[in-house]
Amino acid sequence: MHRTIFTTPGVNTVLRALSLGVLRATGWRLDGQLPADQPKCVLIAAPHTSNWDLPYTLMVAFALRLNIYWMGKQQIFRWPFGPLMRWLGGIAVDRSQSTNLVAASARAIRDADGPLQLVVPPEGTRSKTRHWKTGFYWIALEAGVPIVLAYMDYPRKLSGLGPVFKPTGNIEADMAEIKAWYGQFKGKNWRQFSNE
What we know:
Blueprint: H1 11-25, E1 29-31, E2 40-46, H2 53-63, E3 68-73, H3 82-87, E4 90-93, H4 101-111, E5 116-120, H5 135-143, E6 147-153, E7 158-165, H6 171-181
Parallel strand pairs: 1-7, 2-5, 2-6, 3-4, 3-5
Antiparallel strand pairs: 6-7
Helix pairs in contact: 1-2, 4-5
């Protein structure tokens, strides 16, 4: 995987302190941490309903000492923002083409030398949607890593990492369990989020 802001020496220390300060000053609380025995995983990013989710996610990642990469639509990687988005951990996804993103992502996780957390929003969009995409599930299953249920609850100003979920291969039962857990959280534009 490419070098990011999280793996740039010196910068990550300064930005961690800054992130902790901004989160405290704005009233956000953090909960949970990545288990020491799970350095590689897929993080679900839900609910994903606002552009504000990205800066808050980056600050939370710094505060919790994560090494995240995240998937975003290809349009936000256009010039002049592309290099910055990649340095922030972004991976461009072209939703108009059918690529083998699951296999490539799983291979990248397996081949990574150190800790790596791949953040995937299950809704695949900030817009209202009733159906979650299942790519995050298949990436975790193929990579042989767990799914960590990450969340951002705007009304309570609470963000963090929830339970570690190990996919069983029974996607219907597993997705029902994961979605039920997310029913307790509200995104910034909470009417756009469905955990059904």
